[in-house]
Structures are given as C-alpha cells and as structure tokens.
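Postdoc handover notes: sequence design on the structure in folder B. Input tokens:
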C-alpha cells in the first residue's frame, strides 16, 4: 500500500528546470526588452497617470449634472419664476 503514485519523469524534469531557473538566468537582448517594459515602463506610466490625475476629480456629494472635475464652473440651472 502507498505505492500507487507513479512519478512522471517529464514532470520531474520540468520541476527541476523551474526550481533552477534563477541559477541559469542570463540577461540577453531577447529578455531585456520584456524586463524593461514590464519592470520599468508600465510602472512608470501608471505612476505618471496617477500623479497627473491626483486631486483632479471630486466625486463627493455630486449631483446628476454636476462636473466631476475640480474647479470646473458649474452652470446655473434655469429657474422657473
């Protein structure tokens, strides 16, 4: 009993490759571009987007036709007299 699990050699090789990937990593032109894009450009773009829109919108206690942009002039609604 207890010997029902059979090891798959291909799965064991794949696991060994994944466990040792950090030891065999080399920075090349092929993998430098994705590292630059995903590690630097995307976070920098998101930071710029967040910083440029910071304190620009005010969604507190807005009514249906009010502008969400801070400092925008609110058009006077027509009154019936």
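Designed sequence:
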């Amino acid at each position: 009993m207890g010997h029902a699990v059979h090891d798959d050699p291909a799965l064991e090789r794949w696991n060994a490759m994944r466990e040792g990937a950090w030891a065999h990593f080399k920075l090349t032109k092929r993998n430098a571009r994705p590292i630059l894009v995903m590690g630097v450009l995307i976070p920098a773009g998101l930071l710029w987007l967040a910083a440029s829109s910071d304190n620009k919108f005010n969604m507190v206690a807005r009514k249906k036709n009010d502008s969400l942009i801070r400092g925008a002039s609110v058009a006077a609604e027509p009154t019936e007299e």
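Context for whoever picks this up: The two ends are 92 Å apart (CA to CA). Don't rerun without checking with the PI first.
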